[in-house]
Specification:
The chain has 141 residues and is of the alpha+beta class. Helix content is 59%, strand content 14%. The protein has a domain at 39-134.
């Protein structure tokens, strides 16, 4: 290329910085690989434990729902709770027919319809509260 001795000092500084940067980046990459290898067993253990936690939550959910249905208490053992969420069932064709009849929608806006349905009290819409189990974010010892 051109004469290196005539390169502006800024270009020489840039070249030196790039060389140092690339070396640091390569060293970091090597350390990252070694670190990932060093925590492999811990990562596998965490994954196994997470699976166990999910399986145990699956065991607790029906117990909590049964307790709620029996006692109506939404506060359970160890901070576990119950939230009642609305479940709505309806025939989409009937809902669309209703919407057209009342000039509400050109197409069925399911979200909008489901928000309006409780107030409309339509005979083809079934709304019920369904209990959902919640777990604390942190367990107290």
């Amino acid at each position: 290329m051109g004469n290196e001795s005539k390169a502006p000092q800024a270009v020489l500084n840039l070249e030196a910085a790039i060389i140092v940067h690339d070396g640091a980046k390569a060293a970091l990459s090597q350390r990252r690989v070694k670190f990932e290898e060093s925590i492999e067993a811990d990562a596998a253990r965490v994954k196994t434990l997470a699976s166990k936690v999910e399986n145990l939550k699956d065991e607790v959910r029906p117990l909590a729902i049964a307790e709620f249905k029996e006692t109506a208490s939404k506060k359970m053992w160890g901070g576990i709770g119950i939230q009642e969420k609305s479940s709505i069932e309806y025939d989409e064709a009937d809902a669309l027919g209703f919407a057209h009849e009342h000039g509400m929608f050109l197409i069925l806006d399911k979200k909008g319809f489901e928000q309006a349905a409780p107030a409309l009290k339509l005979d083809f819409v079934k709304i019920e509260k369904v209990p959902a189990v919640t777990f604390p974010k942190e367990w107290k010892s």
